[in-house]
Amino acid sequence: MARKKVSIIGAGKVGSTLAQILAYKEIADVVLFNRTANSAKGIALDLMESAPLEHFDTNVVGSGDYADISGSDIVVLTAGVPRKEGMSRDDLLKVNADIVSAACENIAKQAPDSILIVLTNPLDAMVYLAMKKTGFKKQKVIGMAGILDSARFGYFIAKELGASINDVNAVVLGSHGDTMVPATSLTEVGGVQVEKLVEKEKLNSIIERTRNGGAEIISLEKDSSAYYAPASALATMVESILKDKKMILPCSVYLEGEYGISGIFLGVPVVLGSGGVERIVKLDLSPDESAALAACAEKIRGIVAAL
Q1: What is the predicted pLDDT for the residue at 176?
Q2: Residue 130 clears pLDDT 90, i.e. is over it
Q3: Which residues touch 37 (CB under 8 Å, ≥6 apart)?
Q4: Tell me, what CATH number does 297's domain have?
Q5: Rounded to an integer, what distance in angstroms lies between the CA atom of residue 259 and that of residue 257?
Q6: Within this chain, do residues 183 and 295 fall inside the same structural domain, yes or no?
Q7: Is the peptide bond before 122 cis (omega within 30 degrees of 0)?
Q8: Cα–Cα distance between 7 and 120 in angstroms, integer?
């Protein structure tokens, strides 16, 4: 049986780290695409030369030719201009819209049967644009956001409580941005609601740090945005789809009435399986969380309108 094929558009730090994870875990063969083909080829060669040491049999190739993504089961779009210090994700709207549009035209042509996962910021607007440009069904276009934001939230909670990260079930919904909605009513540590374990002032501080998680890393690294955690989040999505694991994960998906919201992409929990988004999971949010999610949706609607 032929191995599954994943193509990654963009051989920057996130794309190359994702290729490494997929190879090391033997999840799929990988095509690493970059406009500068030699850069992608060099990264792929370097990665493959670690195969005898890491003992993986999957194959990674670099390319600058979109024809090489043909036959992909999944295409992951990481290409785009990253944030720099002082920038918001929304500042990237126009420049990244051009990049996403061009990439999606080629994805639709060369890999029309693939499932498309988008990382490019501003995420919720870019995944909406990707669906429009590819013409793919809504179940096959997914944005990565909530998995990363939930991971950050969970890590900060575990550190505060001195708890095992494995005992934390953190839930972050909404946009991948300043209006994200950390759902504290549904976030638990060892089955206990986090609001009962962390005092309100400290919990609000953790929420604020989660919202600024990407900016904090940029302020420290100066010349780079986050890539290890985003790549791990993408790999989790890819694995759930290719192995039909049907994991429940918060992803940016197209809503048609769910949570009282329609016509935009927004982060909500979904079942990810071989068909892509197989089901949207309805959570019982608190009144404040529901209101915050509605406000988040309106902001995203405004950003999409500016495309």
Answers
A1: 85
A2: yes
A3: 62, 63, 64, 65
A4: 3.90.110.10
A5: 6
A6: yes
A7: yes
A8: 15
State the pLDDT at residue 64. Answer: 98
Name the pairing type of β-strands 172-173 and 181-182. antiparallel
* Residue numbers of the domain that contains 13: 5-143
Q: Taking all residues of the chain, what is their mean pLDDT, rounded to a whole number?
A: 95
Nearest to 259 by CA among 214, 296, 226, 232: 296
Task: Please tell me which residue in 176, 183, 242, 255 is annotated as part of the active site.
Answer: 176
Please tell me the predicted confidence (pLDDT) of residue 74: 98
Q: Does the pLDDT at position 1 exceed 80? A: no
| Neighbouring residues of 79: CB distance < 8 A, sequence distance ≥ 6 | 9, 10, 12, 15, 99, 100, 103, 120
User: Any catalytic annotation for residue 55?
Assistant: no
> CA dihedral in degrees (46, 48, 54, 59; nearest 10)?
150
CA-wise closest residue to 34 among 17, 15, 18, 11: 11
The number of distinct structural domains making up the chain is 2
Are residues 197 and 158 part of one domain?
Answer: yes
